Amino acid sequence: MSRKISVCMATYKGALFIKEQLESILVCLGTDDEVIISDDYSPDDTLAIARSFDDPRIKIFMNEPKNKGHIGNFGNAMSKATGDLIFLADQDDVWHPERVSTVSKALQEHELVVCDCWVVDGKLNVINDSFYSIINAGSGLTKNWVKNTYLGCCMAFHKRIVEKALPFPKNIASHDNWMGLMGEIYGSTVFIPEKLHYFRRHGTNFSQNDEGDAMSEQTSPYTFMQKMKIRWVLAIELLKRVIRNG
């Protein structure tokens, strides 16, 4: 029995690369799947480019209230998803053609799956052959509370994990880390070895300074005490969510 796929993308000023990204995603999907775009009122041609595909699988929503920010934008996209399996997508990357088929197979045995990726520059030249090697990626609740290795654009999960995770707490540092830890608590997670994604780092990625983002943590501007505060806030929010969910 096939399961409907929802790809959730948060957009803001994404005109430069979104066409290439949407092209790479759509070829991975079936006719009944969907791409949910939540836009934070982009002042450029992001939405015009998305609408130019004239593809009923692309469903566009505005982030309300206006300028809700990166985390809230992804939360809005995920709240609109109707699929059984949820894939997260950044606006400026490129997917491998086997991204959905390979990850969907792993989701038969796990609630949350992360794939490896190539780290590339704006022109898709490889900067690093494996994201996993940069951050020592892997599952583990304590491991990923201390230092996040979950990269949102490489993640996919069952709808029930979304139901446990939303709404996002207002004071978390990143949706990547929060979703990964929700997967740890409410199911089994796995980091598969296949590289199925070109993770573009081009200097203007709008999420690149989020503390808690697996990539930006490598060059984080936060002090040790600020990082500790972020971790303790995260621990408190996790406990509150577990109590709420029962």
Explain how this protein is built.
With 246 residues, the chain is of the alpha/beta class. The chain has helices at residues 18-26, 46-52, 70-80, 99-106, 131-135, 141-146, 159-165, 175-186, 224-245; strands at residues 5-11, 34-39, 58-62, 85-89, 94-95, 112-120, 126-128, 155-158, 189-200. It has one domain (5-245): Spore Coat Polysaccharide Biosynthesis Protein SpsA, Chain A (Alpha-Beta Complex). It contains 9 helices and 9 strands. The radius of gyration is 17 Å and the shape is globular. The two termini are 30 Å apart.
List keywords for this structure.
246 residues, alpha/beta, Spore Coat Polysaccharide Biosynthesis Protein SpsA, Chain A, 9-stranded mixed beta sheet, 9 helices, globular
